[in-house]
């Protein structure tokens, strides 16, 4: 027997303590794996049924108890809908009093929800409007542009989009001659313009619309700056309209037309 046979065996190295620090990579993988279950696929908030967009339209799917109607009749199962062409009250699909309007914008499809019980509607206090003065109305003559002309115009969402101007009506007002760029409504061929003025949004909306209608055969057109409606984006954020193109911001105040929503006016007004 060797001389060191009775010596104790050396103790094994201790097991390393488990690493309890969080693993960012593993946590990120778990987060990505559970995200699909957290997202309500095909749902529109506060609207029954399931909704998806295809290349051909919007495809709703409803169960019998969802309370959805299509063309005025109870709807269950699936359908494929193109864009609604009329006003919200004539949309093809609804859920009770809520009208669901299918739209197509810039190649994308969406559903707008018009709810008569929504807070912006129930709290609506009206529109602040200046007294009408016949002196705001002027006779103009339209100088048409060649077809296909477009200009890039900034929009409130930060994007520039092409606007198809349909000409320039020239008219006399306030002792001077003025011209505006007007666009053509694709629906009825009437002219419309986006206008700004010297107030820059301090006492009125940052921009408003002018709708002189359709020119006569000889190019004559009525320009009435006493009827300047607010743009749709003044009432709801999901509407996007262009800012005034170059030349459509007047260097003086346009006192006529709609000013702002009454809820946005100062108490002194």
Write the layout of secondary structure elements.
Elements: H1 24-38, E1 50-53, E2 58-62, E3 68-70, E4 73-74, E5 77-78, E6 93-95, E7 98-105, E8 108-114, H2 119-122, E9 127-129, E10 137-143, E11 151-154, E12 160-163, E13 165-173, E14 176-179, E15 182-184, E16 191-195, E17 208-213, E18 220-224, E19 258-261
* Gyration radius, in Å: 31 Å
Question: Major beta sheet, specifics?
Answer: 7 strands, antiparallel
Helix content: under 10%
Q: Helix count, per DSSP?
A: 2
- Overall mean pLDDT stands at 82
Shape descriptor reads extended
Strand content: 25-35%
Q: Number of DSSP strands?
A: 19
- Separation, N- and C-terminal Cα atoms: 112 Å
Overall SS class = mainly beta
Low-confidence stretches: 1-5
How do the helices and strands follow one another from N- to C-terminus? HEEEEEEEEHEEEEEEEEEEE
Oligomer: single chain
What would your notes on this structure say?
The protein has 269 residues and is mainly β. 7% of the residues lie in helices and 33% in strands. It has two helices and 19 strands. Strands 10, 13, 14, 15, 16, 17 and 18 form a seven-stranded antiparallel beta sheet that branches. Strands 4-3-6-7-8 form a five-stranded antiparallel beta sheet, with no helix packed on it. Strand 11 (151-154) and strand 12 (160-163) form a beta hairpin. Mean pLDDT is 82; it is low at 1-5.
Question: Can you give keywords for this protein?
Answer:
extended; single chain; 269 residues; mainly beta; 2 helices
